[in-house]
Design brief:
3 domains, 35% helix, 9-stranded mixed β-sheet, alpha/beta, globular, Rossmann fold, TIM Barrel
C-alpha cells in the first residue's frame, strides 16, 4: 500500500463542488494521467453528469458528499483514504474501481482478503461485445490483475495466464474494471459503456443515443462537384447527415461562395443540416471577444446566402477553459471533434460547462477504419472527410447505415444561438432568425455573367502583374521554340555539308 502523510492532503485540499460523480486519482499524477482523467470527465459530460475530480488528497474532505465515486488507478493516497471509502460503502454509496491496487488495499483494510484472486502477470487479452454479436479483442498490460470471487454482474472477459475472468464486474456497491489504459480506444469505449450502466438507476440497459454522419470541416474552395455527389447520394438514400462548414469572413458574394452555399441550401432542404466550425484558434492568449466577433461575421455571411447553421463544432478541450466555455454558451447544441489545441485550463475541479445545459454530440471513439460509433451512452458524431476518395466515403456511410446505433437528423431537435446582433431559434420545425421565419426550401442561385470582384488598386495591380507574367512566359516559350528550331536547322545543314560536301570535292578532283 502506498500512502501519503496526513499533512500532505490537508495542505493541498481544494474546494470540490458537489456533483453527480466524483473522480479521484493518485496524488502526484503526471500529465498523461491528467489527460486520461480529462477524457473521463469529457465523456461523462456528454452524458449530462456534473462531474467533480481531483487527487486523493484534494478529495478527502468532500468524499462523503458523493454517492457515486470513480477511483482511477489509485496508488498514492493518504492513509485515512480507505477508512473513508468504508464509510461510503456502509452508507450505500457506489464505488467504481478502475485498476487493481486500491481495490486490493481496500479489501485488505476491511478484512476481505479472501474475497479476491490476484494473478501476478502483466499481459492479458480482453474480449468484449457492444452489440451482442461482434466480439472485439485486444491486448492490455497492468502490473498485476485482481478479480473479485463473488459477483452479481459481469461483462466481457479478461484472459490472464490462459484463465478467463471478467472484464467488468459488480458485487454489491463495488464495481471493478481491472484495466486502466484509457488511451486504448477499446478500453475507453468499454469504460464509457460500463460507467453508463453503473450510473443507470433502473433495471435493464441505459437509453440508446444516436449517431450523426458529419461531412467534416468543409471549405468553400473545395471541389463543389464532389460535395454535390456525396450530398446527392445521401439524399437519395434518405440518410440524415450534417455538413460542418468552416467560417468565412469576407467575399461572401463571390461566385465560388455562391455555388458552395447553393449546394448547402440543397442539402439543407433535403434532410441535411449545417453546423459551423469554430474559427481556428491561433491566439495566445485566447480572446473570447475576438472569437465571438469572427463567429458573428461568419454566421452573417452564411445567413445572407440562405444557409442557417444549427450548431457549433469545437475541439474537445474547449470544455475545460473558462473563455471557450463562454463562447460555447452562445449555442445550445455543441459538436466536439477529436482534435485538441493549446488552451489554458480553468484550474477548477468540476466540469463548469455542465451548468449551461448544452445538447452534446461528442466525437465517436473509433474502433475500426470506418469510425462508426459502438457506444450508445451519448450522441456521437462520425466524421467523413471530403479529401477521402468516394469509395472510402461510401464505406463509412454504409457502415453507419448498418450499425446497431441509429442515425438521427438534427432537424428532430430544437436549436438556438445568439450573437450581439443575431438570434436564431429552431423549434417545432420552424427556423426563426431575428424574429423572421426563414424559408428552408431550395431556391437555385442566380449567377452574374461578368461578376465585379471590386478589386482595390493593389488587387488590380496584382491581377495585371499576373497577366503580364503569363504573357511573358508565353513569349519566352515561343522564343525558346524558335531558337530550338534554328539550332535544329543549323545542325541539319552542318551534317549535310559535311557528308555531301566531301562527295562534291571528290567529283571535282
Amino acid at each position: 500500500m502506498f500512502v501519503c502523510p496526513l499533512v500532505s492532503w490537508a495542505s493541498e485540499s481544494k474546494q470540490i463542488e458537489k456533483g453527480d460523480i466524483l473522480i479521484i486519482y493518485s496524488d502526484g499524477s503526471d500529465e498523461s494521467t491528467l489527460k486520461l482523467v480529462n477524457d473521463m470527465v469529457e465523456v461523462l459530460t456528454y452524458q449530462s453528469f456534473k462531474v467533480s475530480y481531483g487527487t486523493a488528497s484534494e478529495c478527502m474532505e468532500y468524499m462523503n458528499e458523493f454517492s457515486y465515486i470513480i477511483c482511477y488507478d489509485l496508488t498514492m493516497y493518504p492513509k485515512e483514504f480507505t477508512s473513508i471509502l468504508k464509510k461510503i460503502e456502509e452508507n450505500a454509496g457506489h464505488l467504481f474501481f478502475v485498476g487493481n491496487q486500491l481495490l486490493k488495499d481496500y479489501l485488505d483494510h476491511t478484512q476481505r482478503s479472501e474475497a479476491y484472486e490476484q494473478i501476478n502477470r502483466t499481459t492479458g487479452k480482453i474480449r468484449y461485445t457492444f452489440d451482442g454479436s461482434t466480439d472485439w479483442t485486444g491486448i492490455v498490460k497492468e502490473d498485476y490483475y485482481l478479480f473479485l470471487k463473488a459477483i452479481s454482474y459481469q461483462n466481457g472477459s479478461l484472459s490472464v495466464s490462459e484463465k478467463n475472468n471478467y472484464l467488468c464486474a459488480k458485487e454489491g456497491p463495488l464495481t471493478h474494471l481491472p484495466v486502466t489504459d484509457l488511451s486504448n480506444p477499446l478500453v475507453k469505449a468499454i469504460f464509457i459503456k460500463e460507467v453508463a450502466q453503473w450510473k443507470w438507476p433502473f433495471n435493464g440497459s441505459p437509453n440508446i443515443f444516436p449517431q450523426y454522419i458529419v461531412i467534416d470541416k468543409v471549405y468553400p474552395y473545395e471541389d463543389p462537384q464532389k460535395l454535390m455527389e456525396v450530398v446527392t447520394i445521401l439524399v437519395k438514400g434518405k440518410t440524415p447527415f450534417v455538413i460542418s462548414v468552416m467560417p468565412m469572413y469576407v467575399n461572401g458574394n463571390y461566385p465560388a461562395m455562391t455555388r458552395f452555399c447553393e449546394i448547402l441550401r440543397y442539402a439543407q432542404a433535403n434532410g441535411g443540416s449545417i453546423i459551423i466550425n469554430a474559427p481556428i484558434d491561433q491566439m495566445n492568449p485566447f480572446d473570447k471577444d475576438v472569437m465571438l466577433d469572427y463567429l458573428a461575421q461568419a454566421l452573417e455571411i452564411y445567413n445572407k446566402q440562405g444557409v442557417y447553421p444549427l450548431a457549433l463544432e469545437v475541439p474537445g478541450n474547449w470544455l475545460f477553459s473558462e473563455d471557450t466555455i463562454e463562447v460555447m454558451r452562445h449555442f445550445k447544441t455543441i459538436f466536439t471533434s477529436g482534435e485538441d489545441g493549446y488552451l489554458k485550463q480553468s484550474g477548477r475541479n468540476t466540469n463548469e460547462v455542465y451548468k449551461d445545459g448544452h445538447q452534446w454530440i461528442g466525437s465517436s471513439t473509433a474502433l475500426d477504419d470506418f469510425g462508426t460509433s459502438y457506444v450508445s451512452a451519448y450522441s456521437t458524431a462520425v466524421p467523413i472527410s471530403l479529401n477521402a476518395d468516394k469509395a472510402e466515403i461510401m464505406k463509412r456511410v454504409n457502415a453507419c447505415r448498418s450499425s446497431f446505433i441509429p442515425l438521427k437528423s438534427l432537424w428532430d431537435m430544437d436549436h438556438s444561438y445568439w450573437m450581439e446582433k443575431d438570434l436564431m431559434t429552431y423549434q417545432n420545425q420552424s427556423l426563426v432568425l431575428n424574429g423572421k421565419k426563414k424559408d428552408l426550401n431550395f431556391i437555385p442561385s442566380v449567377y452574374t455573367e461578368k461578376f465585379n470582384y471590386q478589386r482595390n488598386v493593389l488587387q488590380r495591380f496584382s491581377k495585371d502583374l499576373t497577366t503580364q507574367n503569363r504573357m511573358l512566359i508565353y513569349m519566352v516559350g515561343i522564343t525558346s521554340l524558335v531558337f530550338l528550331f534554328f539550332i535544329f536547322v543549323a545542325r541539319y545543314n552542318n551534317r549535310r555539308n559535311y557528308f555531301f560536301g566531301h562527295k562534291e570535292d571528290d567529283h571535282i578532283k
